Amino acid sequence: MRLQGKRILISAAAQGIGRASALACAAEGASVIAVDINEEGLAALAAGGDTIETHRLDVRDRAAIDALATKTGGFDGLFNCAGFVHNGTILDVSEEDWAFSTDLNVTSMYRMTQAFLPGMLDRAGKTGTVSILNMASMASSIKGFANRAVYGTTKAAVIGLTKSVAADFVKQGVRCNALCPGTVDTPSLRGRIASAADPVQAEKDFIARQPMGRLATVDDITPLVLYLLSDESRFVTGQAMLVDGGVTI
Ligand code: NAD
User: Fold this and answer.
1) pTM score, two decimals?
2) Model ipTM?
């Protein structure tokens, strides 16, 4: 088992990539703490197996994050997966939209890392290696996309944060990488398609920008999550790893 004996914390775990990652990590022997604000989704996840413990956690709530860190202690893996896709050019982004997206997509990772890194450093002192994985996107500093002004900005910042953490803690056994998926078929993507003026065309457009001719499934993404959280990636840090079906060829 690739994650036997590891304790892993995953945010945004009630659905989509976070949920699939929680299940995949548990299947590889990790004891997983899955957090989200969607309690119904967490309950369904917890029902699936006894190696997944769930907690309601709003990653925008510093006090709640600190309280969880005190309660749970050290982790070998932290997957900061929570994020939100705002649709629009820079002319469409209100101050409120901007503040929300930067807070959820980037500042939450600063809060989570600050709260959980001390416990991870303790674990690294014993085991030699721990891993932080931050959810970025191909829409970031890597590539620009129409109508992703604040989203692309925040995901570029995630890559910057990732490299900074990697540089600061490389000598203490902490690895930190960013995951950059293409378009993945998840509940929020289905919501974006459904809310388009022409949902059929919107789905076709999402597929058309994927050179492999299809959307990713969550199962296309979890192998890279497992790799980056496991010791198989022990010589990899500070990287923005793409899994995008060829979009950035
Ligand atoms: P999703 O958007 O369908 O679900 C997101 C989950 O995050 C939900 O369960 C939601 O309740 C939770 N969440 C929202 N706010 C939260 C908060 N404040 N605290 C805790 N949890 C919160 O899932 P997804 O599409 O798999 O997206 C997950 C991540 O992957 C996001 O960061 C997203 O930007 C990124 N991503 C997604 C795609 C894609 O095409 N789906 C592509 C690249 C990157």
Assistant:
1) 0.98
2) 0.99
